[in-house]
């Protein structure tokens, strides 16, 4: 018997914008929203101006969470995950997570 795998990807479960508040100088941790995909999707994070997040300030964990190190006022914007099923060539964008920065 030959093992068979069918490629698929569902939309993200929710596209609702959520909010997160972080103090200046602390780290922000964004959870990767739930999505079903075979094969496992390639994941990137971007801000609301479609900028991809690279550099020493940003990290992605093994389970696709986004970490913003040493948050400052310039980080106060919305972020979302983009999942790509490379076998299907299909992309899905999550809802935004609005980061509010508390400088008090």
Give the gist of this structure:
With 104 residues, this protein is mainly beta. 0% of the residues lie in helices and 41% in strands. It starts with 7 loop residues before the first strand and ends with a strand.
What does this structure look like?
- With 104 residues, the protein is an all-beta fold.
- The protein has strands at residues 8-9, 18-23, 28-30, 37-38, 42-47, 58-60, 66-68, 78-85, 90-93, 97-102.
- Strands 2, 5, 8, 9 and 10 form a 5-stranded mixed sheet that branches. Strands 3-7-6 form a 3-stranded antiparallel sheet, with no helix packed on it.
- Strand 6 and strand 7 (66-68) form a beta hairpin.
Distance between the termini: 64 Å
> In this structure, how is the largest beta sheet organized?
5 strands, mixed
* H/E series: EEEEEEEEEE
Q: Strand share of the residues?
A: 35-45%
Helix content: under 10%
Mean pLDDT: 93
Report the radius of gyration as a whole number of Å. 15 Å
The count of DSSP E runs of length 2 or more, i.e. the number of strands, is 10
Structural class, from helix and strand content?
Answer: mainly beta
How many helices? 0
Low-confidence stretches: none
Helix/strand layout:
Elements: E1 8-9, E2 18-23, E3 28-30, E4 37-38, E5 42-47, E6 58-60, E7 66-68, E8 78-85, E9 90-93, E10 97-102
Parallel strand pairs: 2-10
Antiparallel strand pairs: 1-4, 3-7, 5-8, 6-7, 8-9, 8-10
């Amino acid at each position: 018997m030959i093992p068979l795998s069918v490629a698929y990807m569902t939309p993200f479960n929710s596209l609702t914008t959520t909010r997160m508040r972080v103090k200046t100088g602390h780290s922000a941790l964004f959870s990767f929203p739930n999505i079903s995909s075979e094969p496992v999707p390639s994941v990137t994070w971007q801000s609301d101006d479609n900028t991809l997040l690279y550099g020493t300030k940003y990290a992605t964990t093994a389970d696709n969470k986004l970490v913003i190190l040493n948050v400052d006022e310039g980080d106060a914007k919305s972020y979302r995950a983009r999942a790509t099923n490379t076998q299907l060539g299909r992309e899905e964008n999550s809802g935004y997570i609005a980061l509010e920065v508390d400088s008090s």
